[in-house]
Amino acid sequence: MNRTALVTGASSGIGRATAALLAARGYRVLGTCRAPESLPAGRRIADVEYLALDLADESSVEALGARLKDVDVLVNNAGESHSGPFEELPPDDLRRLFQVNVFGPVRLAQLAIPGMRERRYGRIVMVGSMLASFPLSYRSSYVATKAALKGFSNGARHELSPFGVWLTTVEPGSINTGISERRTKHIAADSIHRTDFETMLAALDRNEHSGVSPERVAATIVRAIEDQKPRQRYAVGSNAPLVFALRRVTPTSLVEKMTHRRHNLHR
Question: What residues form the membrane-spanning segments (predicted)?
Fold first, then answer.
């Protein structure tokens, strides 16, 4: 195996599981996290080289340009979870969220593509969310970033596949990664939405605690990388095959009701 893969957010969850699986399959793996020097030994993977990356900092993203020239596989996994009533989302925080979840990953892909195109081989996996296909109340900011990431991927794959470079999106459903403890939340003290917001969060946390493992998502990501002609989208978790099949034959209004009932919101 002479392929080099770079996985963002490789210190925990899906990113760590993906980096470990790629290393086990013989890839040379670069894994990013905000502070590699502070990463405990127990969270390090022996065959992974760790690089510093803060997606909120444009200069940190650009600093990876030289390493990305030689990368054959880019897994844009790192991102931030975000919740809040639409009317209460702070503009500055929205800008930061889009930098972390969209602009940073897109720029990393732009930096990697020229080398992939010249070698006539490349795989770019955007780790999205099933919420981009099944939007949920009080998650509009997060949904919007994942939908944007999918849009970039879906459009650009047509431009680059003639050069052997394939972009694809992996959409996890409920995954047990501990992200519920790290979710950014915005809600006013006197918000009219507080009861429904807290109901949604409780259901979201419950679903994630009972979700599939990061290793199962990692296996789907590796499948997307190693398929000869990767599909536009791979979904995993939350009964993905069934719910996407139902979505194709079910009225949108009913799909919305089913999504909200899963989170104890009766619309």
Answer: none
